Automatic annotation (TrEMBL):
<feature type="transmembrane region" description="Helical">
    <location>
        <begin position="6"/>
        <end position="25"/>
    </location>
</feature>
<keyword id="KW-0812">Transmembrane</keyword>
<dbReference type="InterPro" id="IPR019662">
    <property type="entry name" value="DUF2516"/>
</dbReference>
<feature type="transmembrane region" description="Helical">
    <location>
        <begin position="45"/>
        <end position="64"/>
    </location>
</feature>
<keyword id="KW-1133">Transmembrane helix</keyword>
<feature type="transmembrane region" description="Helical">
    <location>
        <begin position="70"/>
        <end position="87"/>
    </location>
</feature>
<keyword id="KW-0472">Membrane</keyword>
<protein>
    <recommendedName>
        <fullName>DUF2516 family protein</fullName>
    </recommendedName>
</protein>
<dbReference type="Pfam" id="PF10724">
    <property type="entry name" value="DUF2516"/>
</dbReference>
């Protein structure tokens, strides 16, 4: 049986890639002007960040349990999570408008 740390990395990897795919798909479907209205980087920039982050998670997966590739995997995960927790809510708010 693998150590607990490897099991946790595996679980995060299994959950991280679908989240990255979702973030990229969400970035594709948003209007380009919503990014500037939300005072975030441009749509092409976020497409590159979410796509590159997802690719990094796939290419440098945590299944190996460490090594230099793990740094790229973590950077990819962080990039995708920044989009999910920061950019996505602002885009939704801008496109809906304020509900006062």
């Amino acid at each position: 049986m693998a150590p607990l740390s490897l099991q946790i990395l595996w679980l995060i990897q299994v959950a991280g890639v679908p989240v990255g795919i979702y973030a990229f798909a969400h970035a594709v479907t948003q209007r380009a002007d919503a990014y500037t209205a939300a005072d975030r980087m441009t749509k092409p920039a976020w497409l590159g960040i979410t796509g590159g982050g997802t690719a990094a998670m796939i290419l440098f997966g945590a299944f190996g349990g460490g090594g230099p590739g793990l740094l790229f995997w973590i950077a990819g995960l962080v990039a995708v999570l920044v989009y999910i927790v920061d950019v996505r809510p602002k885009l939704i708010e801008v496109q809906r408008g304020h509900n006062w």
